[in-house]
Design brief:
The structure is a homodimer of 140-residue chains. Chain A is mainly alpha-helical and 140 residues long. Helices cover 58% and strands 6% of the residues of chain A. The first copy, chain A, contains 6 helices and 2 strands. The structure holds a DNA duplex (39 and 39 nucleotides).
Amino acid sequence: MTTSSRYAVALHVLVALAHLGEDGATSERLAGSVNTNPVVVRRILGLLAKAGFVSGQGGRHGGYKLARDPKKIALDAVLKAVEPDGIFPVHENPPNRVCPVSCGIKEVLGGVFARAEASMHDRLRETSVADLLRRVESTG
Amino acid sequence: MTTSSRYAVALHVLVALAHLGEDGATSERLAGSVNTNPVVVRRILGLLAKAGFVSGQGGRHGGYKLARDPKKIALDAVLKAVEPDGIFPVHENPPNRVCPVSCGIKEVLGGVFARAEASMHDRLRETSVADLLRRVESTG
DNA sequence: GCCAGAGTACTCGGATAATCCATGTCCGAGTGCGTACGG
DNA sequence: CCGTACGCACTCGGACATGGATTATCCGAGTACTCTGGC
């Protein structure tokens, strides 16, 4: 599995939890659904718990549950939770003062990237976890 | 997924080549501007050469030059060239037939991601390498 | 029968090894200029 | 003097080590159920 499928895994897990409802599921079961290691799921769910989307409970009969109405979980918020640094990292500012491009490129690229990401977030905001669940259930 | 900084480096290099014009530059000089290793630049320029944006010439007095008018190089095309697999990779299709979410999630996520990326591409298409160069020169 | 207590099974969370990708280093292939030699 | 052939300097492109990040394994902390013993 590639390194950057965190977002896809996060959405997969959220949809699964929305599907299961109040019962919730353990990280092992979710991992079986995603076909990965339970630790990966736990780590991603840790990020989602910090953002307030899920709640984890240890102990027997523990597991994860949604902490919010899936209709209130928009996809852009999930992306911010699991990729807080943004999609397009800019390389470190080069100290090359000779090249005029080096000096100004960072600021210019930052603006372009911010606008592009904002556009993407606007589109993602239109969809919620509940929408995804409905589509999955209708296609499945 | 954290896209690496390939895209930022690619744009930096393209702007630098547009700034230099017909003279072009070697990978070593470009690497000095980007503050990285020449081989990184060569690899990215290899992708851009495949896409027809630049042309590389070996031998003495070799180097890279733009192969197209910078006004005709849109930022979305550059992104496609350096990240052909898209921004949001979807994890491998899990063989878990028991979970209904597993079966349908891939297709649903694929659609959502495609729309989000399309929105971003539309925004990126509005800007060209020449626009970036103009902004860099005005701010510098 | 009922309650208290320890025991057990099960889960999450963090710390520690193994693995994978990206980066960095090196070498061969190719090109163009410069020079030396012969005519 | 002029042309040709060789040599050299320089560059790209790909193959081989290295580093950091991601992933997988392991162990401790915590919770709820269960069983046992006493009242």
